[in-house]
Design a protein that fits this description.
The chain is α+β, with helices and mostly antiparallel strands. It is built from one helix and eight strands; from the N terminus they run αββββββββ. A four-stranded mixed sheet has the order 2-1-4-7, with no helix packed on it. It has a four-stranded antiparallel sheet with strand order 3-8-5-6, with no helix packed on it. The longest helix is centred in the N-terminal third of the chain and has 20 residues. The C terminus is likely disordered. Bound molecules: copper (II) ion (CU). Copper (II) ion binds next to loops.
């Protein structure tokens, strides 16, 4: 019986000592900038995936997303815009290879990021299909004027 009492005493004292004497784990993380989501943009898509880039967000949430130019060494500027928001990156290019967008999501749902610069190489890989339906421009064929025609 005495042994049991001693054992309990030892256990209790260990518990007490460990809970009191143990310094709180110092989780001192250096003051860092809030990590932002990084997305590479190149002619093959966002992070190599063709199509628009979707991001779940909740109403009121601060969205921070960094777009990284990925068409090096060539210059093939893109402009990444947010659907339904009046926000875009401006030219994402060799000169401005990293642009961060920060804004507050105005509703819960998917945010849609897409290139809004149609002139870029691989533009079709940087936005969704919806708007592309039958967008093949049927350029009116300019009727060539017959050479040698003259109003005599
Ligand atoms: Cu584009």
């Amino acid at each position: 019986m005495k042994k049991v009492f001693l054992l309990v005493l030892v256990l209790v004292s260990i518990l007490v000592v460990s809970s009191c004497a143990q310094p709180q784990p110092a989780e001192v993380s250096p003051p860092q900038e809030k990590e932002t989501l990084r997305v590479e943009v190149n002619r093959y898509g966002f992070n190599g995936n063709p199509g628009e880039f979707l991001l779940e967000a909740e109403e009121g949430q601060e969205v921070a997303i960094t777009f990284v130019y990925g068409d090096l060494p060539e210059n093939n500027p893109h402009i990444i815009g947010v659907l339904d928001y009046d926000i875009d990156t401006g030219l994402l290019s060799q000169e401005n290879p990293e642009i961060t967008l920060r804004f507050i999501a105005k509703e819960t749902g998917e945010l849609v990021f897409a290139c809004i610069r149609p002139q870029c190489i691989g533009h079709h890989n940087l936005h969704g299909d919806e708007e592309e339906e039958h967008s093949e421009d049927e350029e009116p064929h300019e009727d060539e004027e017959p050479h040698g025609y003259s109003e005599a």
